[in-house]
Amino acid sequence: MLIWDGDILIRYSLVGLFILTIIPLRKNLILFSAVFVYILHSIYALQLNAPPILPVQADAPITHSTYLQLVIFRSKEIFVSYSTIDSFFYSVKVLSFMLFGLYCSSLLTLPRQNKFNWPTMLMLLVSIRMATAILSFVLQGSEADIIISFLNYLLTPSIYVTALLTLTTIEALKGVIFFFSSVGRMSLTNYLLQNLVMTFIFYSYGLDQYQKWQPWQLLAFAVLLFLVQGYISSLWLQYQNQGPVEKLWRYFTYERQAKRKAQLK
């Protein structure tokens, strides 16, 4: 909110805070919770005969506002966006996705040294997903389509996870994987840095370049910025275990609590 409106990421971060309380649960219970929460969302969607839709936020007056005016504007828009029943059930859907992702993360503890054939699993899941896509098109609007949509909800993220695990088995891609993993390990730092750079370039309180660049210039700059961040992240992690913002976040969420418990003992 202090840098930009955050879009869907604010909702993700709020739901993510709730996820922290669920991490200690057993894996099967997490999977059950993911399915149960998604069913709640589906029941609400069936009553509406449509999925919950987020309220459309007004575009921020980027080109003619001071920093303080933009912060006030974003605060009002975020409050309006999060105060509807549709907004709540959209968050319920996000929660179900995160719970399923938390369950899938447990797959990373499985043996990686070619003891499990991830490429074959990926091909199988993609084939099933293509079949369900065809069925969904043929049965569009029927009750069976609702069941297929639920299967797709499980299949699609499973394909993402399996694809990532497949990449880890390819020896030639180890350097590329290290590059992207470095960016991922410092994702919060990189996200905030991207926002600081982009808002300074395009907002009126910075260089005021909004709508003054060609699409190819925007794309080229975005790729260049990502590559620079990847290089800096790889270099940083050669000397540190985590990014600066990640370290600060970890201190306030884990280490400070651990110190308090130690003091109480």
TrEMBL record:
InterPro entries: Bact_Transport_Assoc, DUF418. Keywords: Membrane, Transmembrane, Transmembrane helix. The chain crosses the membrane at residues 88-110, 122-139, 188-206, 218-237. It comes from the Bacteria. Residues 111-254 form the DUF418 domain. The keyword Signal does not apply. It holds the Pfam family DUF418. PANTHER family: INNER MEMBRANE PROTEIN (PTHR30590:SF2). This is DUF418 domain-containing protein.
